[in-house]
Amino acid sequence: MLSTLPENCAMTLYVNLAELLGTRIEQGFYRPGDRLPSVRALSVEHGVSLSTVQQAYRVLEDSGLAQPKPKSGYFVPVGRELPALPVVGRPAQRPVDISQWEQVLELIRSVPREDTVQLGRGMPDLDSPTLKPLLRSLAQISRRQDMRGLSYDNIHGNFGLREQVARLLLDSGCQLGPNDLVITTGCHEALSTSIRSICEPGDIVAVDSPSFHGAMQTLKGLGMKALEIPTDPITGISLDALELALEQWPIKAIQLTPNCNNPLGYIMPESRKRALLTLAQRFDVAIIEDDVYGELAYTYPRPRTIKSFDEDGRVLLCSSFSKTLAPGLRIGWVAPGRYLERVLHMKYISTGSTAPQPQLAIADFLKNGHFEPHLRRMRSQYQRNRDLMIDWISRYFPAGTRASRPQGSFMLWVELPEGFDALRLNRALQDQGVQIAVGSIFSASGKYRNCLRMNYAAKPTPLIEEAVRKVGAAAITLLAQNESSID
């Protein structure tokens, strides 16, 4: 129960309460036009302060799920008809060899083209004016005569950047120093070196399901097996299913994205993060935490990481600037805890030190205070875009379509009726200048074939709306063909 959490969890209490009320609204417990419980009634029911309830309602108001009326309280907005949430997946209850490389390759080999609207790739918006100071820093570094940007760097990474990242991590609850961090070539290398530091070929890694295709393809390339754990679109990985898996199988590590999850978009409640860490301690397994989208949470302060509760160094925290700034910089980091020496060795035998020039530019960008204003702008833009994208899904997609409710980032998970084939949909759309990410690449065994992931980072334009309409229209056509073939 929310009321049993300790006092120092007050920040999370309002988030949990907002999630509870939001779930009830989205599942139809409160209908459009209904009056929501009063601030005082919720305070008594959940044993929290009035200000906690008011904060929760502000979160719901920002999400468009609650509307205040003077002297009357809060109401569910009239006319707001949201798609139902995706169902919890039912992955295989055993470790499996990972497939889907061909579909992943099809997605990642695509390059930006003027005649294609790219809804599939995990690209942030690169057109924001708040990125201009970063471009200036890159230009200035390239003009320096001391050649610092062209020489080998420390295997740990630039100290100035590590210092700035350590300060940045304070917002996630982590008390780390520069020497606790290793700069990597993007978050992908952070994940890869972490996995190789812990696991060997044939080992089993538990993953959330659906899960980031890049991490799973790393497991595939290293000869490891994935055990997919059912994952709720609001609260995250099932702890009961994970506990059962840990009891049954010799799992070496747990790999997941608890904050602004890719592709479902949820933020795992803090109490569940603590419970997950307790499970890992009980079974003595490592946790590889992907926090690449954590800074893009729509609520402030940003959610805490699992790493922030880690006292014995078993959590390897991985992140990068690929989603907050630009993927072409290829700058990430890992806080590997007790596995620091192994991570350094894995990095040395793969890429060696990371390119210095983008490290210097990002360090300068952070040091001069440009990062937080940029984040504020992006969070606000992505939240508005999310609401618009969900509205377009409701308007243009087939009846019965389900969609996630991202609490951060810029990815939407869309679920079409059972039996639908998103691979056929993607092929049909390519002739129309639109690309999506098919759902099967987010499963080790190719599940979620009736799902797709869509990017809503870019500022909305008639061209993007038309692309979404094309996706919906093609889906309706394919569903009609399926029904006629059955008849």
UniProtKB/TrEMBL annotation:
One of its GO terms (molecular function) is transaminase activity. Residues 11-79 form the HTH gntR-type domain. It holds the Pfam family GntR. PROSITE patterns: HTH_GNTR. The keyword Aminoacyl-tRNA synthetase does not apply. InterPro entries: Aminotransferase_I/II_large, HTH_trans_reg/aminotransferase, PyrdxlP-dep_Trfase, PyrdxlP-dep_Trfase_major, PyrdxlP-dep_Trfase_small, Tscrpt_reg_HTH_GntR, WH-like_DNA-bd_sf, WH_DNA-bd_sf. CDD domains: AAT_like, WHTH_GntR. Coiled coil: none annotated. In the C-terminal section; belongs to the class-I pyridoxal-phosphate-dependent aminotransferase family. This is Transcriptional regulator, GntR family domain / Aspartate aminotransferase. It comes from Pseudomonas batumici.
